[in-house]
Design goal:
With 208 residues, the chain is α+β, with helices and mostly antiparallel strands. The chain has a domain of 118 residues: Reverse transcriptase/Diguanylate cyclase domain (Alpha-Beta Plaits), CATH 3.30.70. The chain is built from eight helices and five strands. It has a five-stranded mixed sheet with strand order 2-3-1-4-5. A hairpin with a 3-residue loop joins strand 2 and strand 3. The radius of gyration is 18 Å and the shape is globular. 36% of the residues are buried.
């Protein structure tokens, strides 16, 4: 299982965005959530999922706003699940707590931690790969995000060029500068690696 715990950056000096973020994540990712997205510890949002793609999707949505320190924990969760994320517990939650604390000190404001000591190194390696993706995204211009959003809706580069009123070569240049195709290839690959980490954590915990 994956626990995503995100702490709002500088919440004392910024408007509270926890509730609007919680509702947005719930709407976007409802089908992949084990329990509803919850508010936790005042200025945190917390989500629980068994799906690596959902975990990664939540992390990317949060990272784009630049308003969150994001911790992802991987491991088991005590069963049966309660009705809310903040009432749940287990190694994945402890790992997410460690991860969000680490994220506050990292340039990408993201950290990944394993709830199983034997998989710590694997989680660290995967965190480094995710960092590369987050750096690409953090350098994306407003124009790059505009194209990204169109292509996320399923538009081709040709369709996007028509929508934006620019030439196809201009769209290609913008896509290269924004790293859109690199992200499109990296995200599912990272999702597979995350799912493998979850599987290994479950196997390791089963052997204990």
């Amino acid at each position: 299982m994956f626990v995503i715990t995100a702490d709002q950056v500088d919440s004392r000096n910024r408007p509270d965005v926890v509730e609007i973020t919680r509702r947005d994540l719930q709407k976007r990712f409802a089908d992949g959530l084990a329990v509803p997205v919850d508010r936790n510890a005042g200025d945190e949002v917390q989500a629980l999922t068994a799906n690596a793609d959902t975990a990664m999707g939540i992390a990317l949505v949060l990272q784009r706003t630049e308003e969150w320190s994001i911790g992802v924990g991987c491991g088991s969760v005590r069963q049966p699940l309660p009705d809310s994320a903040r009432a749940a517990t287990g190694p994945a939650f402890f790992a997410a707590r460690d991860a969000v604390a680490a994220a506050k000190k990292r340039g990408t404001r993201f950290a990944l931690r394993s709830g199983v000591d034997a998989e710590t190194a694997r989680a660290s390696d995967l965190e480094a790969l995710i960092d590369l993706l987050l750096v690409i995204r953090s350098r994306r211009s407003a124009a790059g995000w505009e194209l990204y959003d169109l292509m996320q809706q399923g538009l081709t580069q040709r369709d996007s060029a028509a929508r934006l009123g620019i030439s196809e070569p201009a769209v290609s240049s913008r896509a290269r500068a924004a790293g859109i195709h690199q992200e499109a290839a990296a995200v599912p690959a990272i999702g597979r690696l995350l799912q493998d980490l979850d599987r290994r954590c479950a196997e390791a915990e089963g052997e204990q």
